Amino acid sequence: MSQKAHLVMLLAQSSYFCPTRIVMGSGSYKQLDGILADFAARKVLLTIDPALVETAFVADVLEMLRKAGAGFEIFSNIEPDPSDTSVAEALDLSRALGSELVLAIGGGSTIDVAKAVAIVSTNGGRIHDYEGIEKFSVPPLPLIAVPTTAGTGSEVSGSCVISDTQRGLKMSIRHASLNPARVAILDPLALRTVPTTVAAHSGLDAFVHAFESYISRNANPFTDAVNLHALRLISANIGPLVANPENAEAALAMLTGSALAGMAFGQTGLGNVHCMARFVGAKYHIPHGLSNALCLPVVARFNAIANPAKYVEIARAMGCHVEGLSQTDGAQAAVVAIQDLCAELGIPRHLADVGVKKEHIPELAELCVRAGYNRWNPRTTSKRDFERLFAEGL
């Protein structure tokens, strides 16, 4: 990036903030008893991914809680896209227990339910009341998050997403300072049972977070540094983790990359990948990570013209040799590397492969325009542009 571009970036008003304490390393979950003691919490609601309830990892955590003398209840009725119904059920359980803290063990859906329960527990009402940006002011119950997928970064991000079953849409509840977990435990042992498809889809979700945050119109030097390192970690380690979920080094690198991206994208905003994937996922019931992965290659190619200098840095972060290349060719190297990464991880090449229909493109494009991602996406995108992107993706 040129000195002039750096100067323009520095002159723009921006900020960077992360309130979460990070505990990381193999076996770091064993610090839970001390962390609970720091909060003086005697009654704990556990939100746990239903696939993990019977695992040895969770059994070990429960034994630690018993030894610490903590009373607890487990809520695991959590869908892949968690609903307001699940939040209400978990909240009833939490209130009956008199929870003083919420402990989440699982992926983004599990952590988002925990966040929602923590918010409503102290602010009252329903989670619907807090849709939007900073719609609550009372600090939620303390939340400790142990992510078991390396993807959403929910443990450190200022947002949670809950499906409104009545309106048939996803609510985003955002608060940069009050919504992240108080403590996040990044332990590679928690990823040992993750299925390979989940590892691939969630890992590409984390990659997209870092990629879109890095090229966002709202990026700043702090988020750039965080996102570039996230891109390095994720692109180098997603393959090894998918190949072997017990690869502790790759697992920790992926957890770290996911968290780094999560620390940044809530402050920079995201772009067309998330915009398109949001509506594709909702209409065709496709998991969030896969939706992002499907939309990533075509959007990466479309946005390259908007900031080729940053694309060169992305190529370099992904291990491409760009020395001696023109800026245009260096940017193209990033596009090709992203396409190759998706192919290597078995992502379908076409949106049609997961059921997207040509006749639905105008509707999807209109929804994308209305969503307002042009405030973040580096290239201004019209409805016709979105129609072209969806058509190219088919």
Automatic annotation (TrEMBL):
Pfam families: ADH_Fe_C (PF25137), Fe-ADH (PF00465). Keywords: NAD, Oxidoreductase. InterPro entries: ADH_Fe/GldA (IPR001670), ADH_Fe_C (IPR056798), ADH_Fe_CS (IPR018211), Alcohol_dehydrogenase_Fe (IPR039697). Residues 200-391 form the Fe-containing alcohol dehydrogenase-like C-terminal domain. It comes from the Bacteria. Residues 19-188 form the Alcohol dehydrogenase iron-type/glycerol dehydrogenase GldA domain. Its cofactor is Fe cation. The keyword Oxidoreductase applies. It catalyses: a primary alcohol + NAD(+) = an aldehyde + NADH + H(+); a secondary alcohol + NAD(+) = a ketone + NADH + H(+). One of its GO terms (molecular function) is alcohol dehydrogenase (NAD+) activity. Belongs to the iron-containing alcohol dehydrogenase family. This is Alcohol dehydrogenase 2. It comes from Enterovirga rhinocerotis. The lineage of its organism: Bacteria, Pseudomonadati, Pseudomonadota, Alphaproteobacteria, Hyphomicrobiales.
